[in-house]
Every structure is written in structure tokens, then in C-alpha cells.
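Might you be able to consider the sequence and fold that I enclose below?
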Amino acid sequence: EAIAYYEKVLPTQGDKGDMKQTRERAKASLEAIKVFDLLDLKRIPDGTYTSSSYAYAGPLHVAVTVKRGRIESVKVPQHQEKQYFGALTDTPRRIIEKQSVKGIDTFSSATITSEAIINATAKALSSGMK
């Protein structure tokens, strides 16, 4: 369902208002959703993997460290968010606790920021999978 929704947004034309940002977020979410089911932490060598996704105000970068088949840390070293509340700390904590990017509750009042962290983490992990 989500894939169909995001695919409808992508061809939307115009750069008025938030439409350009909405397309960027839809593209990032679509890329991440496609890797959610493929992720297998056991197939990711120890190391730190980086990626980015489009958040509310612009690109948001993550650095994800994997050790012995577990997510050890998720850090957000760079972002442009101004009103992110606890999303930058709580979303990474939730990913680490769950050891997954699937089924992570977003942070209230900062949903787009939380989604960007989840999406970037999924892409970072998939880049290291063998």
C-alpha cells in the first residue's frame, strides 16, 4: 500500500509550496521500504555505514554501527532540522532496542524527521549487506 502511495506522489508536477520536498521524501521512503524486508543483520559485516534521507528541512545523515550482527549505534551527525524535539535521540534508541527498522514508532510532532532517520538507517544497513 505504501509503495503505491509513494509512486503516485513522484510524478506530481510543480515546485509550489512543499511539493518538491514532498516528492523528495516520497522518493526516500520508497527506496527505504524496498529494502526493509531484505535486511538481515547477520549478513552485515562489522563496521559503520552511512547514508542520508530527506527530512523536514533537508537532508539528514546517519552513521550506523554494526557489531557481531547487532546494531550498536545509530547517530545523526548532520541535519538541518530546527524543531525535531526528541526524534534525533528517541528514534535511534528505538531502532537499537528493536534491532530493526521495521515497526519503529515515529516521534510525535517530528514524524518526518523520525521517518528520515528510519529510511537513512535502512539504506545504510543495506549498503553493507553481503
Notes: The CA atoms of residues 3 and 109 lie 24 Å apart. The mean pLDDT is 87. The chain is about 45% helix and 20% strand. Strands lie at 47-54, 59-67, 70-78.
